[in-house]
Amino acid sequence: MDQQSKSSENLLVIQPLPGIGDAIWHLPHLKALANSNPSGKVTLLTKSRSLAKQLLSETDFVKEVLYLSQEKGDHFGMSGPINLGKFLTPFKFDQAWILHNSARYSIASWWAGIPNRVGFGIGWQDAFLTSAHTLSKNDKRLTTIEKSKRLLRLNGIAIDDDKPTLYFSEAILKSAALHLPKEKHLNIALAIGSSEPRKQWGTENFIRLVELLTNTLRPNIVLVGGDEDAEMAVNICEHFENPRWIKQLINHPILEAAAVTKFCQVCIGNDTGILNVAAAAGTHAFGIFCGSRPLNPDPLITPIEAGETKQGCFQNTITPKMIVEQLIAAGFTK
């Protein structure tokens, strides 16, 4: 282990990617850095869209989550690095780990007077880092997950378990259990939301999937999504005349929604945050990758990828039959 890691008490991790999935992907890195720190904890700086404050509120190795301000003139733009540095100064961090390519965060860490600054070091960022070990130009092609793993290992930080794991209090679990039927059926969560139109499988496809699931496995269905997915959830329920075996979990607090997926045996959904959350909660997830490629190597995520099409529309190349066959092959039955 690097000597500067041993001596650090107040450790900051800067991970500014905005997605819920991004927050999940980096959990093994946060845990490894916390384990390297005498306090056993890290502070995370990220974007509010990640919902990390709620998502990681029960994670004992995360001391605090700070959000970047994206208001004009705050932490972005020409004066952003200096403003961010001023924001970070009162926390008196001993060390900053920057899991991102941008020089903005190394400049801000330098301005904040953080003595030990570790980052990818590709491009201008390197000028404001103190770590002896950074990534090479050849590493630019790696994904952010791969870059983060490589950076930690280069600097002597062991990742004992690279499976993302979410943590829940007993109170959250008890509350989540109330959202599911007490009958002992297979419970399937459908993550119907999507951050981008190209990743959205679509209402009609989800309706046809529910029809096939009902005919083959007869499960309870829980529709999970955000406020923007409310209309889709209503349309799915109305198609089946609002049955008791379909529950809507729309726009619920993210950690409670995550806990509900933990009580489901299966989660099927678009390439979205909830899919990653379900796998981190310990649920076998089947991802519908109709407009993106799988990036999370979580062993609990089975990717179902779209075929090629001349028209450039990939949503319908993944069929409900393909998904149900995958479920049955994985051993899920009535």
How are the SSEs ordered, and which strands pair?
Blueprint: H1 3-7, E1 11-14, H2 20-25, H3 27-36, E2 42-46, H4 52-55, E3 62-67, H5 80-88, E4 95-98, H6 104-111, E5 116-119, H7 144-154, H8 170-177, E6 187-191, H9 203-216, E7 220-225, H10 230-239, E8 246-250, H11 254-262, E9 266-270, H12 273-280, E10 284-289, E11 301-305, H13 320-329
Parallel strand pairs: 1-2, 1-4, 2-3, 4-5, 6-7, 6-9, 7-8, 9-10, 10-11
Helix pairs in contact: 5-6, 8-11, 9-10, 9-13, 11-12
Unreliable parts: 1-6
Radius of gyration: 21 Å
Assign a percent range to the helix content.
Answer: 25-40%
Q: Which strands sit side by side, in order, in the main sheet? A: 8-7-6-9-10-11
The tally of beta strands, per DSSP, is 11
N-to-C SSE string, H for helix and E for strand: HEHHEHEHEHEHHEHEHEHEHEEH
Given helix and strand content, the structural type is alpha/beta
Q: Strand portion, in percent? A: 15-25%
**Distance linking N and C termini:** 49 Å
- Separate helix tally: 13
Shape: elongated
